[in-house]
Amino acid sequence: MGNGVQEQRASITQGQVLPLTSSPQAAELMQTRSVLNSLVSGALAGAVAKTAVAPLDRTKIIFQVSSARFSAKEAYKLIYHTYRKDGLLSLWRGNSATMVRVIPFAAFQFCAHEQYKRLLGSYYGFEGKALPPFPRFLAGSMAGLTASILTYPLDMVRARMAVTPKEMYSNILHVFGRISREEGRKTLYRGFAPTILGVIPYAGLSFFTYETLKKHHAERSGRQQPYSYERLIFGACAGLIGQSASYPLDVVRRRMQTAGVTGHTYGTILGTMKEIVSEEGVIRGLYKGLSMNWVKGPVAVGISFTTFDLTQILLRKLHEMVHTGR
User: Fold this and answer.
1) What is the pTM of this model?
2) Which of 17-26, 40-49, 117-126 has the lowest mean pLDDT?
3) Spatial distance between the Cα atoms of 32 and 38, rounded to a whole number of angstroms
4) Which of 31, 50, 105, 268 is the most exposed, having the fewest neighbouring CB atoms within 10 Å of its CB?
């Protein structure tokens, strides 16, 4: 899968817009197949990436929702203490909820991104070509926005499971039921506003950076498809830029999501920010855990984009083999 020559045979890349065909039936079939391929590839990409960094992600959330000072040493101590107390698998606590959320989220996000690229390409007259900068950013932002709206309660549940002992919530359905019963169903959407505000720059910059790097690479190297390790590097850069730009809002949404179990009563975005800054300061509060995100985020995003691209290529090759009877 990592062979650049083999990857180059794929005629449609992630950085391009699907061209329209002359036959309406053929166009409809191609569009349906493209949507299904994007959904499957996106789901696999999200699952692989999040599972790979789940222990670091859980540790980051725990620090985000507490007033404890973050440092690499303290993060290591927390991971080690969790491992000694509850075992190795405890480091992946909440990952089942993450999978329930991230699989549809990634599937919707990558699929929506492909469709928005196609629509924007048609609107701006760039069918079959890489989009110009602003539509490239817009497609990523709209894709992240669409996926967030469709899957937000699952993100809320995942955050609760990550910061609570296993005795408090036994499974995902238990989290939903207990929150709805004790705190009200509206609680499932607590932190929704900062999530939406944060995903616009995050998803926009992530997709924009990844596809821009791929475009410049193709122009400079003459290879339409980068090698696998190059995709990982491009994805890592995309994750670094996207997460750094939206990180304070990520801290705010985690505080609001977990307010019911941490004893705080965060009400608004600005109110939450003011309370965090007054208690912990700007850097130590709003950017708590960012250094860990600079490790976790680029790895996760790099794996995600690479897995999506390579799975797309594999599915196209399988379709060609079935279609040609080889």
Assistant:
1) 0.77
2) 17-26
3) 10
4) 268
